[in-house]
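Write out this protein's structure.
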Amino acid sequence: MKKVVSLLAVLFLFAGLSFAAEREIGHSTYTAKVQFAGEALFNFQLKNISGSGTPSEISWDSSAIALGEQDETQWVSAKEYAVISATATKAGFSVYMYQTNKQSSNYKAVTPRKNYKGTTVTSQVYSGLVEKSKGEKYVPIAYSMVSSPNDPGFDGEVKVSTAGGNYRADRYLTDEADLDAAGTGSSFDKQYTNIAGSYGLNKAYVGGPVFGAYDKDGNIAPWGNGKDGKGVAYIFFYGGFNNIVGGEEYGTDQLHVIQITE
């Protein structure tokens, strides 16, 4: 009799611990977020290397350039340089610099010039200063972006340097209509024309503008300018002169500096 009573007590205990099925009687969903506007501002201003004033075009001193065919191309600095200042506290900010010489009415590029590596044609391009009379001859233009307002000079070889904390990134000016070696496809790479943006090597830095330029392999040679969102860089321009005929005019009115923001 005692064993039976104990068993009933245990059965009653477990019956008292059984749970009723759950039933939802209310449901709310909420969103949590914060949005930062940020800003992306860019200014491109020409200045004279010698003297004051605010020039409106890039020019060369013709008296410093030898006429006729030369053993080596003369790389001569323009009389003006550019000061580029930027504020970048948002992502999706980029600045590009390139030409559209085939669209010009004053210096219209007609026949592309051929670039060589040794004796091999590497591209056929319309960039640079264009012969005004026929649009068949060119003066290539290179530029150097530096972190200090001193002309570093140019010898035809592009350089990337961070020596002594003085940053430098050289590039050749390119045209939107540039062609490949065969002249049948485009060789224009917009990424190569990028000179500033709101990203770093990991393309995620938004503490301030980053200056520099991409090479053909997609590698950037940049420098940042602090985390206050502001920065300054300088661009010096060089013309590659060779086989220049007296009495001819070379120029471009299709040099674009374009700011893009998302």
